[in-house]
Amino acid sequence: MKSKKILLLLVMVLSLSIFLFGCGKDSNVSEGNGDVAGDNETGTAEPMVLRVGATPVPHGEILEFISPLLQEKGVELEIREFTDYVLPNMALENKELDANFFQHLPYLEDFNEKNNTNLSSVVAVHFEPLGLYPGKTKTLEEIKKGDIIAVPNDTTNEARALLLLESVGIIKIKENAGLAATAQDIIENPYEVQIKELDAAQLTRSLPDVNFAVINGNFAVQAGLDVSKDALKAEDKDSLAAQTFANIVVVRTGDEEREEIKILTEVITSPEVREFINEKYKGTVIPVF
């Protein structure tokens, strides 16, 4: 009788051991699957969030296009639109943004110097040729003394505008003025034109009130102007200006190696983006990669 009890006890202990071993094995498998799939409840990695500031056209449109491409690589893009050239740099400097996309390198360098900011370019994306557009006067042949020509009032774009006016014989500027040229550097003005300096965003709206205006490419596109059809003269796509004034993605200095920034630079210079720019803007915006 005693031996039967001992045998029964051994069977019960063995059965319990098998049960506990099986549960432990199942638990380990589940934990392993969770580690492979990810750390969150859904088994997928949390996306990296990237906040990028941009002017609406074409920069915001290009960012909208790449948003799903970034998402495929684990980056969730938040686009914040601005309508001027100062706030997006200050927002980036103040860590309200991770990057911005609206300016060229000479403007950035000038901005850093004047505002004691520490921002850097990570990649050049496209060139927006400045164009000379008709306002009240429809052709260059009709220009007369005292005509008003509106130009951007920021340092580098004003210089570009003056160089463009010089290229069509309206004015002549000091030889060494270069990209720092202002209206004060005009040394010949046979038509006695008045240079009206305006914020770049205001230039298209000024056309009914001036004879001509030199307008930045992004604001021209936004206003429905086509540089190849509407401009009386534009910067050439193969010019030095195209290399010097390519629009860039900008970050805080030191953030260039962040993983999400590297993914952004890779995607925004992909063949898909080149095709999108060429098809949508047809020469008003020119990819440089």
Structure description:
It is a single chain. With 289 residues, this protein is α/β, with parallel strands linked by helices. The chain folds into two domains: 48-129 and 243-287, D-Maltodextrin-Binding Protein, domain 2 (3-Layer(aba) Sandwich); 131-235, Periplasmic binding protein-like II (D-Maltodextrin-Binding Protein, domain 2, 3-Layer(aba) Sandwich), CATH 3.40.190. 42% of the residues lie in helices and 22% in strands. The chain contains ten helices and 13 strands. It has helices at residues 2-37, 56-72, 87-93, 105-115, 155-167, 203-206, 217-222, 240-244, 259-268, 271-281, and strands at residues 48-54, 75-81, 99-104, 119-127, 131-134, 148-152, 172-173, 186-188, 194-198, 212-215, 233-234, 246-252, 286-287. The strands form three sheets. A six-stranded mixed sheet has the order 2-1-3-12-4-13, with helices on both faces. Strands 9-6-10-5-11 form a five-stranded mixed sheet. The model is unreliable at 5-11 and 16-43 (pLDDT under 50).
Please identify the structural class as seen in this structure: alpha/beta
Q: Please, how many domains?
A: 2
CATH topology of the largest domain: D-Maltodextrin-Binding Protein, domain 2
Largest sheet: 6 strands, mixed
The count of helical stretches stands at 10
- Assign a percent range to the helix content: 40-55%
CATH class of the largest domain: Alpha Beta
The portion of residues forming beta strands comes to: 15-25%
* SSE string, helices as H and strands as E: HEHEHEHEEEHEEEHEHEHEHHE
What is the number of beta strands? 13
Biggest sheet: strand arrangement: 2-1-3-12-4-13
Q: Low-confidence segments, ≥5 residues, pLDDT <50? A: 5-11, 16-43
Q: What Rg is obtained from the alpha carbons, in whole angstroms? A: 30 Å
What separation lies between the terminal Cα atoms? 91 Å
Find the CATH superfamily of the largest domain.
Periplasmic binding protein-like II
What is the molecular shape? elongated
Mean pLDDT: 87
CATH architecture of the largest domain: 3-Layer(aba) Sandwich
